[in-house]
Amino acid sequence: MGRPTPLQCICVMRTSTSATAREERPSQIRMALSSITNEVDTEAMAALHKATGLPIVGSQDWDRERLTHVLVLGPDGLTLACVGPLAALGSLRLDYGRGRLGHRLQSPIGRKHPLARALGLRPGQACPNILDATGGLGRDALLMARLGCEVVLCERNPVIAQMLSEALSRGTASSPILRAAIQRVRTIAADAREYLALCTPSSVPAVIYLDPMYPHRNKRALVKQEIRILRTLVGNDSDALDLFNAAIISGCERVVVKRPKGAPGIAGVSPHHQVLLPSSRYDVYCPG
Ligand SMILES: C[S@@+](CC[C@H](N)C(=O)[O-])C[C@H]1O[C@@H](n2cnc3c(N)ncnc32)[C@H](O)[C@@H]1O
User: Fold this and answer.
1) Which pLDDT band holds residue 19 (cuts at 50, 70, 90)?
2) CB of 228 closer than 6 A to ligand 1?
3) Which residue has its alpha carbon closest to ligand 1 atom 5?
4) What are the structural domains of the chain?
């Protein structure tokens, strides 16, 4: 496994969160760390154990431990495998050089892009620095970096934060375009509210981007497999309003909130303006 990009940890996190968030998950989470070959770097395994707090188990013990998720370290990096009662969900692996996202990141992207408009990027003007306060799978952060912005990527789930860091580090071996975007991203394993509380007036980001998990009430809604897997770990971000409030009072110039099409706004206040997409939208708030 390549060395992860520097990952700053400003608080110790547990994989379990509030009672509300636990209830939103489909089952009790039982996670462990495993390697599938003997060739794996034992130092990397120890570092992962330290960062995530996950116990290390051999692959023969997955059933006996009644696990729901296994973070597997292989020669080609990290994969989160859903096992036991969640096995039907498959596995999650972040790879920014491939698939639809890989293609989007390689394609030309300009300031007329809906995300660029939501962030307030203007032709001929410098890019604002951004806090992506809901890192998740890192897709939006990379798009923002591809647009030229410096991005702090904050993810509070320690397992997802490690996967992000490892995938970004792996991605630097990819094309020069992807490498340049990745070099603009700094990953922080922390709750974004704690990160914002530590910012000084000079270090507050110009733009704060939020894309909290949205509870899908329509069971037939087509939710991407990777988001379904993510949801089993992080729940429904039921404290998103707190994060929004922290962003609004942080002193930043703009808060951008991604919402599914038809969903109510995150708070009872109207956004300054909206950028509409076919199945989602960006609500833009300009505090101050
Ligand atoms: C829907 S996902 C974001 C997807 C992301 N925009 C992408 O492009 O992949 C929401 C993520 O935000 C994280 N999150 C929610 N609240 C957070 C907070 N206060 N601080 C840090 N991360 C948070 C969750 O753990 C989850 O991984």
Assistant:
1) very low
2) no
3) 136
4) 7-92 (3.40.50), 99-285 (3.40.50.150)
